[in-house]
Amino acid sequence: MSRVAGFSEATYIGLHAMVLIAQKNGERISIRDMADNLSVSEAHLAKVILRLAHTGLISTTRGPGGGAVLAKKPKEISFLDIVEAIEGPLENTSCVFGKSQCTCKECIFGDFLIKMTKEAKEWLGSKTLAEF
Q1: Per CATH, the architecture of 9-131 is what?
Q2: What are the pLDDT digits (tens) for 98-114?
Q3: Considering just the CA atoms, what is the radius of gyration of the chain in Å?
Q4: Domain ranges of the chain
Q5: Region of residue 39 (phi > 0: left; psi between -120 and 50: alpha; otherwise: beta)
Q6: Confidence band, pLDDT 50/70/90 cuts, at residue 29
Q7: Is the CB of residue 129 less than 8 Å from the CB of residue 73?
Q8: Do the Cβ atoms of 52 and 82 come closer than 8 Å?
């Protein structure tokens, strides 16, 4: 899976898994069913689901009849919530190296990374699971 905007594969899996969970309208969906639907490894998906559960976005139950369900209403969960649950807070940074590691006098990206991060946060924050 190729990455856009520097998000990890786990983030893309998490976003798609959350849409699947939301589409179940309160009915639990198993990791196996999600993994089959998304064509991803159950083990990788399980790690992503664990992160989402630890941040309170979903509730999970083990065993027969278990699975994942949203812990909030779909309109209360933004894509930004999901991304930050997996990636950590998206910070406005001017350089991927940081000032202590960068060897350039001025950032070769200028303010591009700051603008891109700001726009990404705004877009991700404006999209909720209720839209899908």
Answers
A1: Orthogonal Bundle (1.10)
A2: 666 777 877 787 788 88
A3: 17
A4: 9-131
A5: left
A6: very high
A7: no
A8: yes
